[in-house]
Write a structure and sequence with these properties.
Elements (H helix, E strand, L loop, with lengths): L8 E6 L1 H8 L14 H7 L1 E8 L5 H15 L6 E3 L5 H8 L2 E8 L9 H9 L1 E5 L25 H13 L2 E3 L5 H10 L5 E2 L16 H9 L3 E4 L3 H4 L13 H14 L5 E3 L18 H10 L4 H19 L2
Parallel strand pairs: 1-2, 2-4, 3-4, 4-5, 5-6, 7-8, 8-9
Length: about 325
């Protein structure tokens, strides 16, 4: 078996801070509850992850989330370091710590003057989604149940994208409905990413991306983070749980992204601690086994380097200040 512990992981989306707080877990101690803690990050060679504040739907929720985020990340026992700049990735490797990137999942709590957005950027906000599968003053999200809403970005939403990108915040299009997605695509010249989304051609779920969306993200030199949530992997019963799904259910999405775009679009956005995942990826310690499977089924070490971290890192290099 290949010793693929060498493949560092940059996970594009996790909900661990809220989950750990709710479960009253000690992040520094290995647990079988949830998907992430420091020992399991070490076992999976996760070098950094985007830790989401969710939902960021009101000012009060954002403030509560920021309070929780900073208590969590700056707790010395948790072994984390906040990442604000590209050179911070090298610093975490030198320090032996794991990196944490601040993300707002939804922009509903941001005011129309963008004062809170600018303050959040100074506090380290580096990636952000406009909506979490709902309607707010900026955008419309993809709904989990039909009918889908057909409204896209508002005038304020168009201004929001320009303001966020000017600051150096990477726009996340996961959870946007198709009209909002295409509005973002039309107005941005910078890379965008779908932090945790899969291919709708493989699993017909509204949260997964169409081939046209995938090609558009590739055209913008962005990435799609493969999501491990069962409902988005389950081709036979989209939206339904099946703990017995295997690594091939993940590989099929990777294969499709590569086929219609290229290996350069594929990233990881596990959505760990956000929803249930198959036993094969029961937590973040399982990444080396996934790399083994891909190596045994046609992917090269260079491919896995790209999937595990370098593709997403390239997006940040092109969008961060």
């Amino acid at each position: 078996m290949v010793n693929n512990f060498k493949f560092s992981v940059l996970d594009g989306h996790i909900d661990t801070i809220k989950k750990s707080s709710r479960d009253k877990r000690d992040f520094s101690v290995r647990s079988e509850i949830g998907h992430y803690d420091l020992p399991r990050m070490d076992e999976g060679n996760v070098q950094a992850a985007i830790f989401a504040i969710y939902p960021a739907s009101s000012i009060n929720r954002i403030l509560k989330g920021l309070d929780l985020w900073f208590k969590f990340v700056f707790n010395p026992l948790n072994g984390l370091m906040q990442i604000k700049r590209i050179d911070d990735f090298a610093k975490i490797q030198a320090s032996g710590k794991r990196g944490a990137i601040l993300h707002f999942e939804g922009a509903g709590g941001i005011d129309k003057t963008f004062r809170l957005l600018r303050i959040a950027y100074r506090l380290g906000l580096r990636t952000m989604g406009l909506s979490w599968s709902n309607v707010n003053k900026f955008a419309t999200g993809v709904m989990f149940n039909d009918p889908q809403k057909e409204t896209g970005l508002t005038k304020e939403g168009i201004k929001f994208v320009a303001e966020a990108q000017a600051l150096g915040i990477t726009i996340d299009v996961s959870h946007l409905n198709e009209p909002s997605f295409w509005d973002v695509y039309e107005i941005t010249e910078k890379p965008i990413f779908a932090s945790h989304s899969n291919a709708r051609a493989i699993v017909n779920h509204p949260r997964n991306l169409t081939d046209e969306q995938i090609k558009a993200i590739h055209e913008k030199h962005g990435t799609v983070g493969i999501n491990f949530v069962m409902g988005f992997l389950n081709a036979k019963e989209p939206g339904m749980y099946n703990y017995n799904l295997n690594f091939d259910s993940i590989k099929k999405h990777i294969d499709h992204l590569v086929e219609i775009a290229s290996i350069d679009i594929v990233a990881i956005g596990s959505d760990f601690d956000g929803a249930a995942t198959p036993t094969c990826v029961k937590d973040c310690s399982m990444f080396p086994r996934l790399w083994d499977y891909l190596l045994e089924n046609g992917y090269s070490e260079q491919d896995i380097e790209k999937i595990s971290h370098t593709n997403l890192l390239q997006v940040f290099k092109k969008t961060w200040k």
